[in-house]
Amino acid sequence: xxxxxxxxxxxxxxxxxxxxxxFSRIRWGKLxxxxxxxxxxxxxxxxxxxxxxxxxxxETAIAVPxxxxxxxxxxxxxxxxxxxNLGNYFYLVEDTFYLDAYLxxxxxxxxxxxxxxxxxxxxxYLIARSxxxxxxxxxxxxxxxxxxSFLLRVYAWMGFLKKNGIVNDMLLGMGVIDQPLQxxxxxxxxxxxxxxxxxxxxxxxxxxxxxxxxxxxLEAAEDxxxxxxxxxxxxxxxxxxxGIIAGCxxxxxxxxxxxxxxxLLGGSDTLMIGRxxxxxxxxxxxxxxxxxxxxxxxxxxxLPIMLIRNTQGKEAAS
Amino acid sequence: xxxxxxxxxxxxxxxxxxLYAPIVALxxxxxxxxxxxxxxxxxSLKWYTELFNNExxxxxxxxxxxxxxxxxxxxxxxxxxxxxxxxxFGPFRGKMILSGWVTAPLVMPEVITGLSLLLLFVAMExxxxxxxxxxxxxxxxxxxxxxxxxxxxxxxxxxxxMDESxEEAAMDxxxxxxxxxxxxxxxxxxxAIISGWLLSFTLSLDDLVIASFVSGPGNSTLxxxxxxxxxxxxxxxxxxLATLMILIVAVGVIAAMYQMRRQARLLxxxxxx
Amino acid sequence: xxxxxNIETSLSSNTAxxxxxxxxxxxxxxxxxxxxxxxxxxxxxAVDNIxxxxxxxxxxxxxxxxxxxxxxxxxxxxGFETPTSGRIIIDGTDMSGIQPWKxxxxxxxxxxxxxPHLSVADNVAFGLKREGVGRAEVKxxxxxxLDMVQLGHLGKRKPHQLSGGQRQRVALARSLIKRPKLxxxxxxxxxxxxxxxxxxxxxxxxxxxxxxxxxxxxTHDQExxxxxxxxIGVMNHGVIVQTDEPHxxxxxxxxxxxxxxxxxxxxxxxxxxxxxxDAVHIESAEAGTTIVKHHGISCAPGxxxxxxxxxxxxxxxxxxxxxxxxxxxxxxEDIAYMGSLSVFxxxxxSGKEVRVTQPNFDRHVGDRFTWNDKVFLSWKSDSTVVLTS
Lengths: 318, 273, 389
Known about the structure:
The structure holds 3 protein chains of 3 kinds. Chain A is mainly α. Chain A contains 12 helices and 2 strands; from the N terminus they run αββααααααααααα. Chain A folds into 2 domains: 8-56, no CATH class; 95-285, MetI-like fold (Orthogonal Bundle), CATH 1.10.3720.10. In chain A, α5 (150-161) packs across α7 (187-212). The longest helix of chain A is centred in the middle third of the chain and has 34 residues, at 96-129. Chain A starts with 24 loop residues before the first helix and ends with a helix. By secondary structure, chain B is mostly helical. Chain B has a domain at 70-241: MetI-like (MetI-like fold, Orthogonal Bundle). Chain B has helices at 6-30, 46-53, 55-88, 95-107, 110-128, 136-161, 165-172, 177-206, 209-214, 222-230, 236-272. In chain B, α2 (46-53) crosses α11, α3 (55-88) crosses α10 and α4 packs across α6. Chain B is globular. Chain C has 2 domains: 23-258, Rossmann fold; 264-387, CATH 2.40.50.100. Chain C has helices spanning 2-12, 70-78, 120-131, 135-148, 164-176, 194-211, 222-228, 246-251, 256-261; strands at 32-41, 44-54, 59-64, 85-90, 93-94, 105-108, 182-186, 214-219, 231-236, 239-244, 266-276, 279-284, 289-294, 304-309, 315-317, 326-337, 341-348, 353-359, 374-379, 385-387. The model of chain C is unreliable at 1-18 (pLDDT under 50). The chains are: A mainly alpha, B mainly alpha, C alpha+beta. Chains in contact: A-B, A-C, B-C. Chains A and B meet through α1, α3, α4, α5 and α9 of A and α1, α3, α4, α5 and α6 of B.
């Protein structure tokens, strides 16, 4: 129950039968508090999407800015010309390049989320089971990389994975391989990059779920005849499930739209939709096409994710 | 600790090695004398000297810090207002919209945010003549927009975990809503606001994609400069820069931990008296 | 003038029987008047058309289970909830539309709601500073108040450095410092352990009498209500079922709900067979006999009623008692020895189970009876309570 809700002074619309002045000071205060962030987000978050949608219906042109306008207003002949170009959307469907890029983004994000989960689980479990000061230290060790530059962490892997990089040197030195492996500019490097940069996002929610778990539950399971593996599957996993879901969302969502990692670690054939949009905009300077890609991405990827998050949140609240 | 099987220890250790090996390698190679990044040529600080003589990087770094400072501060104000409205005003018209707008930037791919803001700025310039050209100002607007979402979520979480009767008690003792906010609510959510500011500062300092879209010519932030250098391959100067940034963050985190521990010890001593 | 003097004398000595308390006087002016108060949350009615008068210097307990509406009622008095309909009048002033920070009312919260970032002294001073009281006066009044709750030496501490009992005192001091006309206390002793609670109960009553503030206490703990209150209002489903002095609520419950809610009780269903001017006879199949209640109860022959008898009012014996008004027969099914008393569960021939408690006034009393003994249960007519609702 919210404290300012339902009190006489807040001007609650749901209250019936109690009349109070519309323009009270408190009402104004509340209005100001709401409207400042509302105005900002409306102007700089919501309106931009309308602009993107509008431009996705334009044609590319050699002009500044490089697109045609939808409305032509001719005063002398007194006509208003509305020109909507659906060509960009048709092109998106026709050319399998874009579809491939969408699907590939989802595939790469999904697989790396799964790998992140597998890598993160033992770390989270170990932290949750360790004692006071060690726990704090390990937790800090997981969070510390998150505060350092994302770009530089991706960059670190470039030095690690390249042909004459450290990994190849070590493998050659151990005699595992006799030819340096091509690891940079492959999908493999992209997976490594995503798992690496988003690992803390997976460890933290897993840790907070596992930390709440009562260890005597596992003892109880064993007491009732469950072997450790069975106990893990029947007790630990279900109890960690909220953490697993939260962590997977935290990794999957940014991974799908990722640009930096495929751009630096991936090869030219590593198609990801974020990178396609970037290239469309910066290399081809095709603003309407980039806008169309963005609109489709919004509808196909972002809206479902928001819906999932919403239902997650509601379940957690209830 | 019979529950810590060898398997758990081994896989967790491997996880930590995975987390730190690239960073350690980066730091070590920043002291490499050799120009060839992969060949070890002995210890040297020469890349650090070159870094400090690189005006482009220093300028970009200064610009990034300025932008991050202003964006984080704006984001904290707007985000706190939004978080407060959402958790303390009960139902109001437009609440659904506000909470949608606040949380959406968290799941929005950066490329979309960047593109849409750029197109907005271009359209606004055509219609209103503002912002004329793009640069520091437009980057600050863009960063404030996505950072305030994080602040709002953190503040809202803190407020909803806070005992509401604290605020009721303040009202009951005669505090009006405005003084109630500054006397009780603000001091209590201060930790959330501070961490929101730090997170915003880091996110802004770290952002490449959005800044690339909305910046103008001659307004390259540090990530933009690094990106253009790194794209061409591994460069020892960037190693040196990365080492410095890691050092700063590590010192900050350790200082914060030390401070927290000191406070805890202080409390213990007070309790024993 | 005489009436107000009466109130004072009646309250300064709780045991006084010679003076009449305000609520028993015709035309006494209530200090807090609640008129047809209703609060709905959507479809749910939390408080349902309650009217109640509370008098100056009373310590009134609202007693009820969770969801009974007692807390909502309290929050409406403080101004945190707006009534859907009805009025609250405090000391002659209608509280409608008066904001919480302007009401002559203070509240002590269940969680104490001490500001964690302020010291004990600053917590207590908070209300005075909002009133714009001068610095010197604030200091002096805070010191005085802290001394009263025996925390004068802890003013500089932060709330988290205090024990539960100390926090409770700080909360009390903070809510009293503005000298409110009416103090609302939400489960004031709920967070304390049993021993501390007993000590604090008496302290609370002493402070209330010393300061002459009217207290309205919300609690779910019947013992707490019994020890603290001048009067108890028992709440259920948003309605006050019975308002009476503690003794009367226990000994003369007006409904099955109140009888069951306060203390434990044996209820026998039956119907009136004979209604004489000085006695009622109730035939109860469950009791297996006709129960007699002397003195007037207005009910019609044939009316279905419940007979309530408290376990401690029932005697247990091997021989059929000769002087008792009501006698039942049964077999001991279970005995629980609880130190100061023993609880017997006796199965009547009708199958009905009856609970009987006997004080262990000598060490071997409990040994006299054992499982499966055939016994007689008996009680006097005036221990019988006849309930029609």
